[in-house]
Specification:
14% strand, 7-stranded mixed sheet, alpha/beta, 7 strands
């Protein structure tokens, strides 16, 4: 089975690297049997994928890995987040349930029906969500075993204009948003990201936890294991691509350089 047929792929980096670039939302792929449960017609589905996909983030992570002196590991979701969203809580802890966008979405970015609300999410959680979470946990633990620590850098993008599903869309939308988890994002990691991206956008182009907050840490380590540090990088899409869902532009190369500098900085600590 090829990587594109696998639900996710772990791409090796340097044996001793602590860094794991996580790309959860970059794919548009929806398997046929999952597509059958989505109520949108084909045109509407393609439009939704344009809005919901963090386009070109897998290419961004790959370019940064090539540029970094010590290659990071990469964990890439090969399926659309319309299958499952691996970064949601799979239960009532998830605030996005309020807009039908928990681990299995029932509503679209424009709050239209995606799946019937009475559908049981359990089959998709069992087939896709839990295996993904287990594999990410194993990948993080492998970095701890190899390097004594793991640094998860979550690679995302977001639209220039707020979409109706956003719960916190009224705040600033800087070129780069840094999402933090207080237990897992130490000051030196946040400072390294501000320095790497600030060299490209200026310090005024960097903010944290607006319009999106938090970062991904496997639940086994969340809030308990300080060997796991984490940071979310949210890049405003107009800095590197044509919105929505269009081609990448020259900004992608510049961003890859910034991400590679962040990887270099945290790898050498």
């Amino acid at each position: 089975m090829s990587d594109l047929q696998q639900p996710f792929t772990l791409i090796p980096g340097a044996a001793g690297s602590p860094v794991l670039l996580h790309v959860p939302h970059g794919s548009r792929r929806v398997p046929h049997h999952v597509r059958q449960g989505i109520t949108l017609d084909d045109t509407a589905l393609e439009r939704e994928l344009d809005h919901i996909t963090d386009a070109h983030t897998a290419e961004l992570a790959a370019a940064a890995a090539t540029l970094a002196p010590v290659a990071p590991w990469r964990f890439v979701n090969n399926l659309s987040r319309l299958v499952v969203d691996p970064e949601r809580f799979p239960d009532e802890r998830e605030e996005m349930l309020a807009v039908g966008m928990g681990a299995v979405y029932t509503r679209t970015t424009h709050r239209e029906q995606l799946r019937p609300p009475e559908d049981d999410p359990s089959p998709l959680l069992e087939a896709y969500f839990h295996p993904y979470a287990d594999a990410m946990t194993e990948a993080v633990e492998a970095r701890i075993a190899a390097a004594g620590r793991a640094v998860v850098i979550d690679v995302h993008s977001y639209p220039t204009t707020p979409l109706p599903y956003e719960l916190h869309g009224t705040g600033p939308r800087p070129p780069v948003c840094l999402g933090i988890a207080p237990f897992h994002t130490p000051p030196d990691l946040l400072a390294a990201a501000k320095a790497a991206f600030g060299d490209r956008f200026g310090r005024g182009g960097i903010a944290h936890d607006t319009p999106f907050a938090g970062t991904y840490v496997p639940l086994r380590h969340y809030g308990s294991d300080r060997r796991v540090t984490a940071l979310m990088i949210e890049i405003r899409r107009d800095t590197y691509m044509t919105e929505p869902g269009g081609p990448a532009g020259p900004g992608l190369e510049m961003l890859a350089g910034a991400l590679a500098e962040l990887v270099r900085s945290v790898s050498s600590r």
